[in-house]
Amino acid sequence: MKVALVTDSTADLPKPLRERLGVRVVPLYVNLGGRIYKDWEEITPEEIFKKVREGEAFPTTSQPSPEDFQRAYQEVLQEADHVLSIHISAKLSGTVQSALLAAQNFPERITVFDSQAASLGIGMMVLRAHELLSQGHALEEVLSELDRIRKDHFVRFSVATLEFLKRGGRIGGAQAFLGTLLGIKPILTLKEGRAEAAGRARGERKAREEILKDFQAWARGREHIRAFFLYGAEENAVRELKEMVLASGLPVEEALVSELGAVIASHTGPGTYGFYAYSL
């Protein structure tokens, strides 16, 4: 059985990579200044932040419609027997629901998987699924591995301001950070698909050190770790953290470095950086 992969644009996989792998990406949408833009296709994070600084209202985002997914599934199924559709956490977006509604039109030919993640947390699962399918693993084996990664992975990220997360209603327990003193950096994670507080530090350097300490605790006893680094608009925001992680002496390899797309950036704001990791 030939299984094709579909994901959504919040996986933040660079376009050359997803094209090389043959992964179909269904875009989410950004609403900015009364116009609707396709994520990763029609607007960049830099453009969003510039307009907000100039006084534009904060952007809003929306999921693909069931019709968007139906069109994608119809096209992909012309050359595949089955589709594995991997998407952003259902607690962050209605994307999974749209995919499930579309899947009803293709009985037993679509499997929708809620990553309970965002950005490269989705991307790393898509890449792992592609790797296993390319090696000839059955769909059931791939789903078992994705479920394992969903339950056991590491994620930490920091933002320059909580204002974007606050306005988008995506911060969950991270609300504890609101009103903190200038210079305090929030350290966030995702738990069961929602952004939650994981710590706080005074200044950038200390924040990176705290993230590294948390990662070292998680990585203890693991033999092969893949790390996926993300950043919003400026890659130098994540560069030092990446160097610290790779120089930690842990068995970790750099799997991918990618910029956040416009939808995720609309909720995290400028100056965001962090990484996901899982072990084999």
UniProtKB/TrEMBL annotation:
GO MF, one annotated term: lipid binding
Origin superkingdom: Bacteria
Keywords in alphabetical order: Lipid-binding
NCBIfam families: DegV
UniProt name for this protein: Fatty acid-binding protein DegV
Organism: Thermus scotoductus
